[in-house]
Amino acid sequence: MGIFFIFPGLDDIPLEICYTLRMQKKLIAGNWKMNGDLASALALTRGIVEGVNADPGLLQRCDVLICPPFVHLARVRANLGQPPLVMLGAQDCSERENGAVTGDISAAMLADCGCGAVILGHSERRQFHQESDALIAAKAGKAHAAGLIAVICVGESESQRAAGTHFEVVAAQLKGALPASMTPENTVIAYEPVWAIGTGKTATPEDVREMHAFIRKSAGSARILYGGSVKPENAAELFKTENVDGALIGGASLKAEQYLSIAKAA
Ligand code: PGA
Questions:
Q1: Confidence (pLDDT) at 129
Q2: 27 CA distance to ligand 1 middle (Å)
Q3: For ligand 1, atom 2: residue with the closest CA
Q4: Per-residue DSSP letter, 160
Q5: Exposed, middle or buried, 126 (CB in 10 Å: 0-12/13-18/19+)?
Q6: Is 19 helix (H, G, I), strand (E, B) or coil?
Q7: Cβ(225) to ligand 1 under 6 A?
Q8: Percent with pLDDT over 70 in the chain
Q9: How far is CA 36 from the centre of its chain?
Q10: Mapping DSSP to helix (H, G, I), strand (E, B) and coil, where does residue 21 land?
Q11: What is the mean pLDDT of the chain?
Q12: How far is the centre of ligand 1, averaged over its atoms, from the C-alpha of 249 (Å)?
């Protein structure tokens, strides 16, 4: 049973594009962060699209989402094929509608340039931009109003895990950052222990199982992704873990081969 998301596109792109989001399918989300120039973004896009085309069964097994930097979104979108097989997402959006907010990008603008999703509350935004749970909830509300899927990130720091407060920390983040507009279809929760991001350290399958079971109580049937040093070598084991509905991938999403091999593990 599929759920269809319809959002407006650029002039040269069909106005209505449907993505089938099957809740039982894993979601493989690539977070490109602030990496690459236009040429490398387009080369990466080409590699991913070719890989997906070469394996027709892949999209039966998982949904593929890529989240390039804002400035590359429209060009990447134009290179995803017609209709696009790969979903496009952004890495943040404003909590405001539009208007005099210099430097910000609204959720409606993202939808307009072909995005179907947006990552919100990533730990790097919490750390470098002091984003609070309330701000993340406001952003998610705007994302939903624009028809975007909000991929909301939660996760404890190394010291919080060492102190044994990781469940409390994640519970507070979920309570504060999940908006009233959340449904299982418009929201994905990404559990990303901060100490596992970009460090090569992955949480053990048991840690992941425990935390995802805990998050499940707030998530309902929304998908729960694991993020933090996901690689082709550890993906299969993670995907076998109960309540792991996909992955949010940073470093390994910058190489088409590695990203596709993680998708294949789903
Ligand atoms: P990583 O990043 O895969 O490079 O650890 C994950 C993320 O920050 O989303």
A1: 98
A2: 15
A3: 250
A4: H
A5: buried
A6: strand
A7: no
A8: 91
A9: 18
A10: strand
A11: 91
A12: 5
Q: By alpha-carbon position, which residue is closest to atom 3 of ligand 1?
A: 250
Structure token digits, residue 193: 């222990």
Position 202 scores a pLDDT of: 86
The DSSP element (H or E) to which 22 belongs, if any, is none
pLDDT in tens, 94-145: 999 999 999 999 999 999 999 999 999 999 999 999 999 999 999 999 999 9
CA 161 to each of CA 39, 104, 199, 225: distance values in angstroms, whole numbers, following the listed order: 40, 33, 16, 19
Give the model's pLDDT for residue 24. 72
Q: In this structure, what token pair is assigned to residue 182? A: 């959340």
Contact 28, 65 (CB under 8 A): yes
Tens-place pLDDT, residues 164-211: 999 999 999 999 999 999 999 999 999 999 999 999 888 999 999 999
Tokens of 56: 């027709």
Burial (0-12, 13-18, 19+ Cβ within 10 Å), 262: buried
**Tokens standing for residue 44:** 């990466």
Q: Compute the Cα dihedral for 9, 12, 34, 58 and give only its sign.
A: positive
List the chain domain ranges: 26-53+88-265
- Count the neighbouring beta carbons within 10 Å of the beta carbon of residue 194: 21
Answer yes or no: 131 catalytic. no
Active-site annotation holds for 192 = yes
Say what the pLDDT of residue 23 is: 56
Does 26-53+88-265 carry CATH code 3.20.20.70?
yes
